[in-house]
Amino acid sequence: MESLNEKIEDLLTRLNRVANEETLQKDNQRIRELEAISMKADFWQDTTVAQETMRELSALTAQQKEIEDLKSNLITAKELLTVSGGQGSNGMEAELAKLEERIASLETLSFLSGPYDRGDAIISIHAGQGGVEAMDWAAMLLRMYLKYASKKNWGAELFDESKGEEAGIKSASIEIRGTDAYGLLKKEAGTHRLVRQSPFNADSLRQTSFALVEVLPVVAEAAKKEINPDEIEMETFRASGPGGQNVQKVNSAVRLRHKPSGIVVTAQSERSQLQNRESALKVLAAKLYLLEEAKRVENERSLKGEYKTASWGNQIRSYVLHPYKQVKDLRTDLVSNDPDAVLAGYLDPFIEAELKI
What we know:
Layout: H1 2-18, H2 21-38, H3 47-84, H4 89-109, E1 121-127, H5 132-151, E2 155-163, E3 169-177, H6 181-185, E4 190-197, E5 206-217, H7 221-225, E6 232-237, H8 245-249, E7 253-258, E8 263-267, H9 273-304, E9 315-320, E10 326-329, E11 335-336, H10 339-343, H11 348-355
Parallel strand pairs: 4-9
Antiparallel strand pairs: 1-3, 1-5, 2-3, 4-5, 6-7, 7-8, 9-10, 10-11
């Protein structure tokens, strides 16, 4: 009974640490602000902004309800333990384990403090050198993130894909739509390494492949409108992927080049040139936002004497399928001996560890 009491007290302490008075006041104030905005007569004139507002309001309200529910359950558990004198402790242990999982989720979310952490994400995957092996590896990573999104009940949409000649993909970009998507996924950015027996080699030789993952936030509509149209050079071309006669015969794909920065983005999954331009503009706005953020961080690091150039060689995770099975994150040293589960989208332990760095 004493250990169960200690467990309940520990969980209450952890919950109060996440849901402290300052945080609750800040969230309550934001809820009031969003509710006031949603009551305005012209609120739904801009449906995109309105939907973003309502989703933020819904997420904050749900989080507040979760905190209240957890506190109530823990207090009830403490009272029941006192009344029962420790009887039925097995059932109590199981219930506390479930409550601990929910508190751990809140602790993870407490690390999300960036301006776009609560919003959607854009993931771009690029095959490294290595021909068909690297392109197949890029396709495997694409499936992994789509499966992760599915497990989270998030929406996912492919809006750019360049297929490999024999197998896999040269590159692909997907938009992940869900609360906290960018905050949870942003540290997946970097080089991912695969070691396995090659399925494309008759001798089944061991092969090492690399792919680069970019993670971008879906920035506010205002940020897209701030881009000077005169600084964008647009080119249209025929989409290279599958999609029927319209996709193949009409110049529906769009390539945008931002002249001041040299950033180039493409979109080609939609049949409409206008829709592809909108998707490309969304990626461009996100890349420009991260470029400014990178400049700010680099300036801070240079002032402190801490500067490290981002490069292709900065590996974040290694996936080994042969001669042994292991996935190791090189930043957190977290190891999984079940790479099949990881590649099937079970990324939560890695993501939670990454956020705490």
